[in-house]
Known about the structure:
Helices cover about 30% and strands about 20% of the residues. By secondary structure, the protein is of the alpha/beta class. Helix 1 runs antiparallel to helix 2 and helix 3 crosses helix 12.
Amino acid sequence: MSVKNTVAEKLEEAFSFLKDNFLLQYLLRIITDISQKMKDSLNIAVAGATGYVGLELIKILSKHPKVKIVYLCANKSAGKKIQTFDKRIIKKNLPVISKVQNINWNKIEVLFTALPNGEAQKIAKIIPNHIKLIDLSADFRLKNSKLYKKWYGINHKSKELINKAIYSVTEFSKKNLHNHRIISCPGCYPTSIQIPLIPLVKEKMIDLESIIIDSKSGYSGAGRGVHKAYAGKNLYESIKAYGVGFHRHNSEIEQEIKKITKKNKFNITFTPHLSPMFKGILSTIYIETKKSVNLKKINNIYKKTFKGKQFVKIKKANTLISTNDVINTNNCQISVCKTKYKNKYIILSAIDNLIKGGSGQAVQNMNIKFNLPETRGLV
């Protein structure tokens, strides 16, 4: 153990008694931040290690200079090496896969959960307060437990923790990440949609009654079960609409728009499609602007909003972007295109659904939470 680690741990131990004193919370946070900076690495665990998002997360974290992976968890694969599931993970000294219940919570500081919906909320109830939970499921995305039940068909088992979590599209939430122990990462479709849409909503530039969104995703977005579900249906050479009019990602998109507008009346029609490619999302967003708004003003708002934000790339107007432009990156590319109709524009947004729409955004959130450079491990 290095001297830096020893000093950092002593600092945390010496001030642990302050945790229950509300007046000293701010001081405690500063001390925690300082001690974290002094550490050689963050000790982390990944639950849901063998899913598509989990494997991408491990690939990123295994190369992150400030991370030590202590546990890789997948209950049905305990005892196996992670390379069994993805030979591209070349780091040799990774732990053998174990069960979540075998984690010694005192040995980690960050837990990533890339589990089916309903699982992270159970774990959140039992982990100690010193652990930061970064969840990639839907368990803490919706602030209303009744809406969660409506859209996901599950009674929420940690209702008391919902309001302690932050829903984090990183580009919009980074200033508030330090105030929350649970970070909820958005869904892949909502990430590709909200990054280009939210700046225009904030500036009141568009008609909220006529937003149409058409998104196409690689089949990895449906999880490993997609191959069985689509057996005999020509998954690899066809495109299929699903969740038409009622896809559950509608819920978090609408929730975040309501936060900005404070209105219940708006009309977003969202249709996702499963495409014959492994990964990537291309969202096509049809908007009608206010009369005073033109293409140049839209692009200027984007440039202003995303100035200095490494992972959002605003392309020249009318650029026809594709998923190939963003695959294996944490980038979101945006292009605004004109139409033959005045005040009607088409916005193209492309991301890698497993990285910017999943694992990459989770690591981006972790970096900010622990005062690391936002791009660390991602470029």
